[in-house]
Amino acid sequence: MFEELFGNCPQSKLMHFLITAPVDEYTKQQLAVGSGISRVTLDKFINIFIENEVLLFQNSRYVLNTKSKFIRKLFSAQDEFIKFHFNKQLEEAEEEFENLSNVELDKILDQIPDELDFDELEREIEFSEEILVNKKEYENLKHYFLSFSNDDTKLSDFFSSDNKKWYTMDVIE
């Protein structure tokens, strides 16, 4: 909303970024990346932000000056923008509900099994889920499991005390 009202200039992008995370400390590079501008562009105007006490420079980091009257007014304005857009969306929202008769509703509810085991469903989803890892992650995992394996334990046989299988990993060398 901030950029929508004040434009898409680098200063607006930086202010939008700072207002969304006002208590963090940033390097110049983090400010540039976070606001979507180049570091060279940021260097052109960052001193103006410091001179006008919008930003403070502390311990080699930049911090939004939340004690500044200007910044406090921006926070208030942002709250008003949010309320305005929220109310506008509520007014424009059109929800359509399908009115179902009791018979139609009963038919839908009858399709749901009486005894649905959510724990079993969760386990089924958990063990059928594929997790992709990159080569570096794979090497780290392989090293971790190899360091804990011995002759009696295979890499695919790790269980917790409650008999849940935590990891399965087949290492082919």
Helices, strands, pairings?
Elements: H1 2-6, H2 10-20, E1 25-26, H3 28-35, H4 39-51, E2 55-58, E3 61-64, H5 69-92, H6 102-110, H7 118-128, H8 135-148, E4 158-159, E5 165-167
Antiparallel strand pairs: 1-3, 2-3, 4-5
Helix pairs in contact: 2-3, 3-4
Structural features, described:
With 173 residues, the protein is mainly α. 55% of the residues lie in helices and 9% in strands. It has a three-stranded antiparallel sheet. A two-stranded antiparallel sheet has the order 4-5. Helix 2 packs across helix 3 and helix 3 crosses helix 4. The C terminus is likely disordered.
- Rg is 28 Å
E-strand count: 5
What is the chain-wise order of helices and strands? HHEHHEEHHHHEE
Cross-sheet strand order for the largest sheet: 1-3-2
What is the helical fraction, as a range of percent? 40-55%
Strand content: 5-15%
Shape: flat
The major sheet is characterized as:
3 strands, antiparallel
> How many distinct helices?
8
Mean pLDDT: 77
Low-confidence stretches: 148-173
Distance from first to last alpha carbon: 55 Å
Secondary-structure-based class equals: mainly alpha
Quick recap:
This protein has 173 residues and is mainly alpha-helical.
Keywords:
disordered C terminus; 173 residues; mainly alpha; two-stranded antiparallel sheet; 8 helices; three-stranded antiparallel β-sheet
